[in-house]
Sequence to fold (452 residues):
Amino acid sequence: MTDLRNRQPHIRIPRIRRLLVWLLALTLLAVLLLALSTVSLRPAVPASAALSSTDIRRIEQIIVDNSPVRFSSRGERQLSLDAGELNLLTAFVMANVPRTQDVTARFSLEDDTAQAWVSIPQQLGPLTLYLNLHARFAQDQGRARLISLHAGFLPVPRRIMRGAENLVGDRLETASVASQELAELRHGISSVELRDDLLHLTLQWKPEALEQLRAQARQIFMSEDDRQRLLSYYIYIGDIAREVAQQGRTVSMQAFLPDLFARASERSADSSAIAENRSLLQALSLYVNNLSIGELLDGIPDDSVFSPPALRVTLYQRQDLGRHFTSAAAIAASAGAGIAEVLANSKEVYDARYTSGFSFSDMTANVAGLALGETATRTEAQARALQLRLRDVSAESGYMPAPDTEGDGMTEEAFIERYRDRNSPTYLARLRSIEAKVAELPLYAAPEPSTP
Fold:
């Protein structure tokens, strides 16, 4: 009689192996279908046309209309945006912030709800796939809240949405100094409401937080090589300043630009001309605007090497033109000409409303600075050609045309009476005249193609 306790079951190994293979295949298929449900061959938000000059001037006006009367004052600030303004500002940011140029987004606002669509391209070999996100927001317990999120056709569970929100907040609180500044601004938004087809924000305005963020944000994409390059130019600017200070406390921009770009040309033999020009313009803008190198870089020792003598650096004998010129050049070289132009023009409109008045002289310096910063960083060939041309320039008129002072100091009321608005043919003709004068300067011409 057979002992049943000693009997071994008969296992059909090939059959089990086939079953495991099928289970694995089904699992992989499920993962693939899940992944495919989140991406698409088409973007939910198609790429829009480039912003027109009318769009840009509208953005500038939004900035001015929502600015506090005095930037140095603290207090609460109300900001209300309709869907058109929200989409316009989003398109501008996406077009000018690095690594977001291919991302598209669109918002709609209806009563106390909002929807957002975002398309993020993903390259998979020769194939471009799009991660399409669709978010819905609604007013809930006195604030706007995210109520649903879809990645493609796949709904994101509410628990994951809330967890992601909390994780981002925690990361901002505990991450780098720059991120903590962002967190501070985030906490400065005391309320976000959806009402009457508008997005309403209540901001606790803290000028010092904005200044800290501006200084920290400049460092986000700055490598150690960038830091050392910037320090080198700032030290060299100090050497020039100490030498020319013996002749007086007011000096022309001409005392700095040729020597600095001669130095950049030498350094570019072993480096990127674009990187050299960018760091040069950043350092020069800091110095001309009487800002310490510590405004841009942390950990700079407080000694004479990094504290050059403060001089009034002028263009056409005006310190304000020197500041406008170098600020626009540095922003255009660092963040792009689009952002630089909007900031510069917004400042002029702000001045017309609240301070010294609108100035076409300042506009001339802004346009020339934009041309310098853009040409200095457009291509390696143009960056090197600019270095050689500026090295040999003999007068301020080589990089900025003489400003036309007619109408300088106009109040907003005087500007409206004379030009109506900044879309009027009269104003645009005046602006085109300034741009044409700058474009005619040989310094900003494209280099001649080299012959083989």
Summary: The longest strand covers residues 127-140. Residues 222-444 form one domain. Residues 167-185, 210-221 have pLDDT under 50 and may be disordered.
